[in-house]
Amino acid sequence: MQPRIHIGPLTLQSFGICFAIGFAACGLLAARRLRELGKPTDWAYESIFAALVGGLVGARVDYIIQNWGSAKHDLLGSLFSGSGLVWIGGVVGGAIAMVLWAWRRGFLGLTLLDYSAPLLALGYAVGRIGCQVSGDGDYGKASHLPWAMAYPHGTKPISVRVQPTPIYESLAMGLVALALWRVRDRFKPGILFALWLVLSGVERILIEFIRRNERVALGLTLPQLLSIVMAVAGAVWLARAERPFLRPAAA
What we know:
The chain is mainly alpha-helical. The protein has one domain (about 5-185). About 60% of the residues lie in helices and about 10% in strands. It contains nine helices and six strands, in the order ββααααααββααββα. The protein has helices spanning about 15-35, 40-65, 70, 75-80, 85-105, 110-135, 165-180, 190-205, 220-240, and strands at about 5, 10-15, 150, 160, 215, 220. The strands form three sheets. The chain has a two-stranded antiparallel sheet with strand order 1-2. A hairpin with a 2-residue loop joins strand 1 and strand 2. The protein is globular. The chain starts with a strand and ends in an 11-residue tail after the last helix.
């Protein structure tokens, strides 16, 4: 892993680079989708920027809440630190920002949700590459598997060989993003987003069993509890949705 890249006097954070790549990739995909929907492609960059700002704010606030014991001693420093971005907070903050943007553009509705589904999966997959490269602590439990690895030079170093859970998540959510993108025009409005809720929720529930996060209730971690809510919400949405899910075939 390589938490920092030094180019002359300039020092770049590898997580920040992957973070930027993720949003750039989402911007390109969003522009193509908006073109298919007959919307201005400029909206892609507006919506991605809104999600970026909202996601960063939400992720930092969530991190501070979860780490209040240490963060309260340097609240300003914790708020603007280059590390510590929590996924759930990022999703909530980004969602709020996206809703405000869509309301301004008159784009609120199920189409907005379906538009966002592949982008959320893609951005998550690329973001986890940043976690792996920087060694930011999103590791799994100690393991003797052939592909287990230590992160002695990570942002949060560890010398014990552990499950490389960021790699698992990048692969899983990359496949989810690909699947959602390939079926983007096959389902009735809202179904694609419901599928994202189920798939991303189940993925996080499963990965948490081999992560090192603290159990908070019922033997589950906080991300698991929140992901259960997501998965159940998506499942209920699908159960109550009008059948059939597929759009009528074009004449």
